[in-house]
Amino acid sequence: MVTAKTMVTKKITRSGSITLPRQVRQKTGLLPGVPVKMVADQDGIHLSKHVPACFNCGSVDDVKEILGIEICRSCAKKVWRCFDDGGGV
Ligand SMILES: [Zn+2]
User: Fold this and answer.
1) Which runs of E-coded beta strand occur in 1-89?
2) Of 27, 81, 83, 89, which sits most exposed with the smallest number of CB within 10 A?
3) Rounded to the nearest whole angstrom, what is the distance from the C-alpha of residue 54 to the centroid of ligand 1?
4) pTM above 0.70, yes or no
5) Percent of the chain having pLDDT more than 70?
6) Residues with C-beta atoms within 5 A of ion ligand 1
């Protein structure tokens, strides 16, 4: 949790990238490999860690990404039951 605001100015590269300063990455936990959620609104752009959540029920427990969809085990089982006709995969 960030307790004090950090102000930095960065330029956007030609490809649209911005490097997060080390102090910001360390404060926020946005370290290499961490999925990032980006929300743009009238106040600006907000970055935060992306916490995988089930697209159907919103659960964050036991969630996997399959074919670009984040789904929890419980909902995946419900989907599987629709296709489980005993014929296997
Ligand atoms: Zn679910």
Assistant:
1) 36-41, 44-49, 63-66, 69-72
2) 89
3) 5
4) no
5) 92
6) 54, 56-57, 59, 72, 75
